[in-house]
Amino acid sequence: MKRLVSMSLALLIVIFSFASAFAMEVPTDTIIRNLNGTQEYIKVYTVSPDTDPKGLIEADFSHEGFDYSYSVMTKNENYFENEMQHSEVITAETEKKDLSAVLEALPPAVDYDDGIYTGTLYLDHTTIETKAAGYVSRSYTMSETKEYANLDSNDMSYVPQTITKDGKALQLVGVDWQVQGTSLVDDLLVPSSYKAVASYAAKASYNAATGYVSTATYNGRVSCKQLESITYTVTYVGKETAEPEVISYGLFKDRKSLVIGCILFAFFLIAGIFAVLEFFDYWDKRKMKKKAEKAKQKSLVASKAGQQKETLKEEKKCEEEKYF
């Protein structure tokens, strides 16, 4: 059984090798002509760019009374071209939020190339958006100056210790007393009114942007030009043979029919081999089943014979005990 399976696998390998030998590129066009007294057989192939052109050249062959041999091959590249609208979002970082700084960071146009499509994209100014990249806390001194005039004395009780500015409490840090008016007392001028110039201050903080990020959309037309296929034109030059060669394919019309017939024959041959293998497998299972049944019957017969023998021994023993 194993030997038959191995033979079947080997046959499969041979058949696939045989089929691959004929799996050549099929011409997309064939031209037979006589050009200025030269007989030519031209085969045109349109294949993928990675096809080896040497594999398209056939050995010398005969056709309708002419012996043809390879002469020349020409190559024509076929490109796929397409164009479409494309948009890209570009990001730029600036220290300031000024539009002039943003426009300096964003170029008016950029080149686009993704390996397939190429082109130029242009800035759409209406799409520019600028946001803070982040924030950091910074501190500063908030200060304020207050004047309190027409005071009858330079008494500190006239000056408030705290004031409020923009919701922030400022503490008194100093007072500058100025004489506003004088009066004559005993032939002496003495201050009669004062003005207090009070200075207030307090520590405050605010969030400052660490920088700015601007985004903008660039639009434009992009295009691609890729090598899609290559057309090879293979020319064979023919010489008239003394006796036209007649190729016989037996029951088949031509070489292609012969190849298809061989593949079909191999397919049915393999199917027949597997059918035979299945039959032998069924036959082996049937024989094994019969052997198992015979062995079972023998076992039952032997079991019954043993039981009868034991029964006779018991009866004989009972007879002997009866007489004694």
Structure in a nutshell:
By secondary structure, the protein is an alpha+beta fold. It has helices at residues 2-21, 99-105, 255-323; strands at 29-35, 38-47, 61-63, 66-94, 109-113, 117-151, 162-165, 168-185, 188-240. The chain has a domain at 1-24 and 253-324.
Task: Summarize the structure in words.
It is a single chain. With 324 residues, the protein is of the alpha+beta class. The chain contains three helices and nine strands, in the order αββββαβββββα. Strands 1, 2, 3, 4, 5, 6, 7, 8 and 9 form a nine-stranded antiparallel beta sheet that branches. Strand 8 and strand 9 form a beta hairpin. The longest helix has 69 residues, at 255-323. The protein is elongated, with a radius of gyration of 55 Å.
List its salient traits.
single chain; 324 residues; alpha+beta; nine-stranded antiparallel beta sheet; 3 helices; 30% helix
